[in-house]
């Protein structure tokens, strides 16, 4: 049984806009957050100790990280070298240049010959000697379309056809690696990719190069005992046999990951079996406070109450509130800044609501769906002059929705329909809108 720590999507050096300068160190506090979180992962690997560490890609925000960021990353992974824990570093889309050419930020570790470090920047099979035996690992780094788009065989093909061609080529290449596997050794596929069954998050907007989606069926082969994935920031288990896992990112990169739990995965692997457990990390919270005070008589009071009710201490906070232009004078900015001061950092965004855009009926406002009959009934409830014919209108509308034919009234046609009132055309037009 080989014990493995699987982490991914460190993105060390990202999220600076959500931090502030630490006057004692001169560093951005979000960089310090990411380093502390990464150190907790390495601490756990050494404390267990594990036999192997798998990194699923995206070490940095891009292929040319700042020297201080590179140094922080190297300092943490150097601890694994000192502890004699072999490590596989997979190249993700953020570790490559935008077109997949010009090398990758992690390749320096192979060039330097760091003992115990394997850099997976190409589809290849590696046999790794661990304290609990030999493991074979197929590395599948982030693949881009550019390698195929420059070839004559892709001329005139649609994007979908190019994607299918790339999938076909990948299937053939992966099959070639599989046929060279030793069937007696525990086998792991380590890939940085999108699968067609994953739930995506921020990585959709953070992708440096346009990738393609890999069918889950290509990964769930019986020859694999564990499929360790990277790229998707939300932790999820896609399959149990074999075990296909995204550990998720170790830190929140923006507010799209506000509710996601962050962590890494510990896995016990042997030939024909794998067991895992997710290990959550204590990361800095993100908190969005949304308040609509456009209908409030006391907008300042309502804003302050909403902030007081939220858990903002040492969190990255954004306050988004909707307000009418005529209410702006009632909002005291100094009071908002003061009450938000316990947050780690915060932003305030006011969204002006035009009075012309306010719905005539509060019950029919945006942001909700309503049954047509319910909508008509709500409208009629707010039109006292239609009270006498309200039931007939609802009856007629129900019949139209049921079979599309105008119902036959037992009573004479309502006077409103037979002889329009001065306001009838306006009301009929409003009913059509509903």
Report on this model:
The chain has 434 residues and is of the alpha/beta class. It folds into 3 domains: 279 residues, Purple Acid Phosphatase, chain A, domain 2; 72 residues, no CATH class; 72 residues, no CATH class. Helix content is 29%, strand content 22%. The strands form 4 sheets. It has a 6-stranded mixed β-sheet with strand order 4-3-2-1-13-14, with helices on one face. Strand 13 and strand 14 form a beta hairpin. Helix 7 runs parallel beside helix 8. The chain is globular, with a radius of gyration of 30 Å. The C terminus is likely disordered.
Quick overview of this protein structure:
This protein is α/β, with parallel strands linked by helices and 434 residues long.
What attributes does this structure have?
434 residues, six-stranded mixed β-sheet, globular, alpha/beta, 12 helices
Itemize the secondary structure elements and their pairings.
Elements: E1 2-7, H1 29-47, E2 52-55, H2 67-82, E3 87-90, H3 108-111, E4 117-120, E5 124-130, E6 133-140, H4 146-149, H5 159-178, E7 187-192, E8 194-195, H6 203-206, E9 213-214, E10 226-230, E11 236-240, E12 243-246, E13 263-270, E14 273-280, E15 286-292, H7 299-309, E16 316-323, H8 333-340, E17 345-352, H9 372-381, H10 390-403, H11 415-418, H12 424-433
Parallel strand pairs: 1-2, 2-3, 3-4, 6-7, 7-10, 8-9, 10-12, 15-16, 16-17
Antiparallel strand pairs: 1-13, 5-6, 11-12, 13-14
Helix pairs in contact: 1-2, 7-8, 9-10
Structural class by secondary-structure content: alpha/beta
Alpha-carbon Rg, integer: 30 Å
What is the number of independent domains? Answer: 3
CATH fold name of the largest domain? Purple Acid Phosphatase, chain A, domain 2
CATH architecture of the largest domain: 4-Layer Sandwich
Range of helix content: 25-40%
User: What is the spatial order of strands in the main beta sheet?
Assistant: 4-3-2-1-13-14
* Count of distinct strands: 17
Q: Round the mean pLDDT to the nearest integer and report it.
A: 85
Number of helical segments?
12
Low-confidence stretches: 205-209, 406-434
Strand content: 15-25%
Oligomeric grouping of the chains = single chain
The largest sheet is: 6 strands, mixed
